[in-house]
Amino acid sequence: MLRHRLERSLKKTARTFVNLLPIIIGMLLLTSLAVVVFPEQISAGLFGGNDALDALIGASVGSVAAGHPLASYLLGGELLKGGVSLIAVTALIVSWVTVGIVQLPAEALMLGLRFAIYRNVIGFFTAIVIAFLCVHTLRLIG
Amino acid sequence: MERERKKKGVGGWLFLVLVLAAYGMTAAIEPEVARQALSFFIKVLRKMLPVLVLVFVLLLAADLLLEPQWIKRNLGRESGIKGWLVAAVGGVLAAGPIYTWYALLRELREKGMRASLAAIFLYSRAVKLPLLPLMIHYFGTAYTLVLCLYLIGFSVVTGVLIRKLEDQEML
Question: Which of A27, B93, B108, B161 could connect to B113 by a Cys-Cys bridge, CB 3.0–4.6 Å?
């Protein structure tokens, strides 16, 4: 009974996994291409000094950026050194991990188009809100 | 259901073909860019293999251990605060790229998980426990702590918004 159940579950999981593989491989290939085509230096010249606009730009860059979250810390650290505001950098770091334009086709395929769009739109705007709240909270607590 | 699964499987392969076509075009225009991207891909794929094994094990465990009744009770419409907590903690603990978790979430949703809880899970993944020391190194302890608290808080906000859309049958 248990063996039969395990066999059935293994078959089902293998089928799910095989369906998942082209999406994972495709995502990895797409991410790798994006990382090479859009090097970090491009984003440094985008920011202008206006907090709201910079937060919007930061969230946009983070949304289309792909790659390991560690890359967002490195990029964020470099941008801070280059004089970009913490609000813009925070918006970038947050949207990097909460919004995924590159992953959107995969998310839509697996969890539904509407869910993927709504979740990413919410993620984009909350990244900006969090950026302002985070920086102002830090100012408040000194 | 079976037909829908097959359709989704075809979608994944079609997606891969389109990405490969993009690589083909890039290789034709800029061979060096395509070569660099492929070498980056191989490097990341090697790092991801253990995560893929973990995903397979979790998918199997979810199929074996999580009965639809348990899902409905803990992550379904009647799960309440416990469901939100399970989703948020699960998201914080989940490792690896976001798209590796889509299959598990689809599996759980087919068994009765609420869309709002899937959204909380995906949002709370923004808190990267293994990367916290690095974040502290770059931005300081206070910043890291404040940001993480806001991320967890806003995972709930996202859940509330998705739930409203879910209740209005907009998903």
Answer: B108
